[in-house]
Amino acid sequence: MKKPIVITISLLLAAALCAAGTVVYLTFLRPADNPPADACATGATRPRVVAAGASMTQGSLGADWVASLRAAFPAYEFVNAGSNGNTTADLLQRVDTDIVACRPAAVTLLIGTNDVRDGVPLEEYRANLRAIVDRVRSGTGARVALMSLPPLGEDLNAPINRTLTRYNAAIKDIAARTGADHLALHERMAGILRHGARTPYGFGFPLAFSVAAQHYLLGRTWDDIARAGGRELLVDHVHLTDRGGALVTELAGGWLSGITEP
């Protein structure tokens, strides 16, 4: 093989590896904007809102609804306590450092998608979520809102969504028992997804990497990427499109403004 060809191939491979590394970092490795470790190390100058959860809250894969709230409510400091891949067990382990230590005025909890995906037993999920809420309420004077979990895939009749229904029932029950507010995110999304044919659940790392590459390397919106795959609210069957993120922003923003739904 001639030397110029070798050099060209080597440069192309290096560029491909660099692009792949960029996507992996931006999607899976970089910290959330204003994470607890940075935000909560000093005293607050504005009331703090801690948004706690997993990747849907961290917002590096799919819409960043916490950033949208930050722009809409400048009177608050928004702390993004989302962490990719977290279950309720993971969030329970960091509830003191990432929520209580921030001395928040308000806390939103959107957690459980990974519990459902990982097959965490419902009673274990319920116990973990109850312990998180109890610790936040005992350790702070914060208002607390529990969000119901979005569907997994947009086919509401898929087996995984029938399973998820039981977890959402637990969320609503815990909110009622603890005096927390319940934000009906799943119900709002289901009202949209009931109309028309919908794609079944099919999440996997190749798809997640593909949609992330399209967004970060090609500049496509989450909505455009999802639409090309026949989806509307979930860009990769799990994470939120721009429209899906807007629903979360609307619900959480209404709650912060003193408006809650049953």
TrEMBL record:
Keywords, in A-Z order: Signal
SUPFAM superfamilies: SGNH hydrolase (SSF52266)
InterPro entries membership: Ester_Hydrolysis_Enzymes, SGNH_hydro, SGNH_hydro_sf
Residue span, SGNH hydrolase-type esterase domain: 53-191
Molecular function GO labels: phosphatidylcholine lysophospholipase activity
Domain of life: Bacteria
Signal sequence, renumbered to the chain: 1-19
Name of the protein this chain belongs to: Lysophospholipase L1-like esterase
